[in-house]
Amino acid sequence: MIKCIQSKCKISQDDPILDVGCGNALLLTQLAKLGFSNLYGIDYSAPAVKLANSIVKDQNIENITLKEFDFLTDDVKTLPTFSLVLDKGTYDVISMDDESKEKRNRYKENIVDLLQPNGMFLIVSCNWTQLELNAQFGDVFQVVHTIPTPSFQFGGAVGNTLSATLYQTL
């Protein structure tokens, strides 16, 4: 994700970036160390946000804002808008729910609402193929870049262990 952000995203280091489901904020701290200065992370888990805040504090990073926030039920219009939104597994978790179709639609609407014009969305999934992600997001995003991911072969078919795609709003 880092290499893609550095080479394929047409953003400056001071553009706002959001990590949806930031967990321990590892991705955000790596971006901060690379000079990105307007970083924001949300997670529905209070313990995760508490841990992330302690990691950010221990590393003396001051340009990351972390917030406990449920991406599906809290009002995303209370958040700022972003040049880039990142997801490394949140969509996968949402997709496992019994009401996943409705939640996936809400997720997509929220991503779109959070992006600035020409905003970018970078998603990494271990549950969805590249074609499935494109089918789910293709009505609101265009593919900018597909990140090569490890592949495997089984029974004569070739597949990938992950799908990783950078999209831009239409």
What features would you highlight for this structure?
single chain, 9 strands, two-stranded antiparallel sheet, 31% strand, alpha/beta, 170 residues, 6 helices, seven-stranded mixed beta sheet
- Which strand order does the major sheet show? 3-2-1-4-5-9-6
Overall shape: it is globular
Return the structural class: alpha/beta
β-strand percent reads 25-35%
Distance between the termini: 22 Å
Low-confidence stretches: none
Largest sheet: 7 strands, mixed
Given the structure, what is the number of helices?
Answer: 6
Radius of gyration: 16 Å
Mean pLDDT: 94
Helix fraction by DSSP (H/I, runs of at least 4)? 25-40%
Elements, N to C (H/E)? HEHEHEEHHEHEEEE
| DSSP E strands, number | 9
3D architecture notes:
The protein is of the alpha/beta class and 170 residues long. 33% of the residues lie in helices and 31% in strands. The chain has helices at 2-7, 26-33, 46-58, 90-95, 100-114, 130-137, and strands spanning 17-20, 39-43, 64-68, 82-87, 115-125, 141-146, 151-154, 157-160, 163-169. It starts with a helix and ends with a strand. The mean pLDDT is 94.
